[in-house]
Amino acid sequence: MRVLGLDVGERRIGIAKPDETGTLAVPYCVYHRKNLAEDVASLSALCQKLGIEALVVGLPLNMDGTEGPQAKKVREFAEKLAEAVKVPVFYVDERWTTEEVERAMREAGEKPSREKEKVDALSAVLILQVWLESRRSGYH
Predict the structure, then answer these.
(1) Which domains, ranges and CATH numbers included, belong to the chain?
(2) Which residues pair with 4 in a beta bridge?
(3) What are phi and psi of 54, to 5 degrees?
(4) What tens digit of pLDDT does each residue of 124-139 get?
(5) Tens-digit pLDDT profile for residues 85-96
(6) CA nearest neighbour of 39 among 85, 72, 86
C-alpha cells in the first residue's frame, strides 16, 4: 500500500514514505505551510503524483490520552486532506515523537534547535514506522 506519514505542525509538515519493501519509513520532504486551502491543494497534488492510497498522521494527544486543541486542528486538517485525495486516514499517537528524535539527534552530536526541518522529517518517519510495524503485527 502506498502511504505517506505526516507530522503536521503549525509551520511545517514533515513527510515520510515507506521504502520499496514497505518495511522501513524514510524521510521524503518537509512542506512549509501557507494556508489551509493551499496546504490541502499542494499535498493533494503530491499524493496524486505518488499514487498515495492512505495517510498516516501523527496525533498530538495530551499526556492523559485525550485530544486537546492541537489534536483537533491536526484531525481537521487530515480529514480535509483525506477527503480531497479520497483516501483513508490512520492516526498514530505522537506524544513522544519529537522528544525521541531530538534525543537521538543530540546523541549523534547534532543540535535539534538548529535542525527543525530535520526534526519534522524524522518525526514523520517515526510516525509512519510505528504504523508500518503495527500493520505487520496485525494491530491495524
Answers:
(1) 3-136 (3.30.420.140)
(2) 55
(3) -165, 155
(4) 999 999 999 988 876 5
(5) 999 999 999 988
(6) 85
